[in-house]
Amino acid sequence: MKLSTLTLLLAVAAGGAHASEESNLQVQNVECRGNHSTSCDFIRSHLNLSAGMPLSEVELRNAQLRLSSLRNFEAVDVRLEKGAQRNAVVVVIEVTEASPITTESLVGLSSRLDATRSVIAGRVAHQNLFGAGKTLDLAAVAATPLAGEPYDEQYQVHLRYADPNLFGSDSYFAVARASWINASRRDIYGNFSDFEGAEIDLRVGRRFGDFSYFTLSATFRPNAQWVTGEWDFGGPTDFDVTVRDRQHGYGLIYGWNSEDDLYFPTQGFSFHIGAGWDFGSGSPANRSHVQFRRTWQLDDSLLTVKLGGSPSPEYRTSFDESQLLSISYGRSLQASEGVKRGRWYIEPGVGTAGYTSGDARIYEVGVKAGVRLDTTAFGIVDLYLIATQDPQR
């Protein structure tokens, strides 16, 4: 059912009342249908309405958007039925459940600032533990150099548990992750970074408003081996080699996410601003302080502006390789046997990568092209090529 039909349903539920009386409608109950393995409490937690509250058409639209963006469901329909009394309505949320076992894979070829590598990543997850929408996933990433220096090599393994309703709360969520990371990088100017060690990360967040959330994180890296060497702005004598032995880190994020899909967005936007040890080029995680993604539907095509990489809103996450700032043009692919949906895209972008020995900023300009598929056999599959150069060289 399209959301535009909600207005008609509101009038019918009110017994033919004029649209101006819409604010007098009251929620009698919220019912779930089609949820054979998913608890109704998890579904209802995405609707900020309960029995006895005045009906809000805006909130009905927002609830359908929140639920439709989850991989837990193939389809979501929010509708109204007449209640037992005049001006009373029953909110019905009908879902078509997806498989609780999901997979995601990525295969890419990356040549950035003369460092060429292959990238292979995979994730397998159970996204409906205990029938409550909780997630347990195992992910691995291997970025292997295909030539000598310069190079950017990474091997990572992550085990992650996400609870979207911490202690049964409709507002609080939490993520716990244990990782092993081995990452080594050298560029043509001599800048380098070597990191190897385990990482334990705990995040607790709170949703509020329509699509906003705060997240507080604590990270522990026991006995990690991390050395960096970087040219600083100031001339050829300012090359700093640092052995970083800090084991604890904290972070704070404010975010907003109104996208209709994490992998195939067609509307809405995602935004976050973060502060703490894990943000910026001088951190092990190297996360962007600011992340933004907005998608517009243009007839048969899509235009996306992205800053700081792809989003990982609230307790969800995905694989991605992109430049600091990019503009993506994409078109949807027709569904076929074995492919439920797909999209090809071309994504030119720009970025920065530190300094040279001559005090010059290292710039990065390039293009990414790829195809993303939602398959019946292999889940989300992302295939891409990315190539960048420093325009000053």
UniProtKB/TrEMBL annotation:
| Residues annotated as signal peptide | 1-19
* Gene3D superfamilies for the chain: membrane protein fhac, membrane protein fhac: a member of the omp85/tpsb transporter family
Top-level taxonomic group: Bacteria
Q: Which UniProt keywords apply?
A: Membrane, Signal, Transmembrane, Transmembrane beta strand
- Annotated PANTHER family: SORTING AND ASSEMBLY MACHINERY COMPONENT 50 HOMOLOG (PTHR12815:SF18), SORTING AND ASSEMBLY MACHINERY SAMM50 PROTEIN FAMILY MEMBER (PTHR12815)
* Protein name, entry field: POTRA domain-containing protein
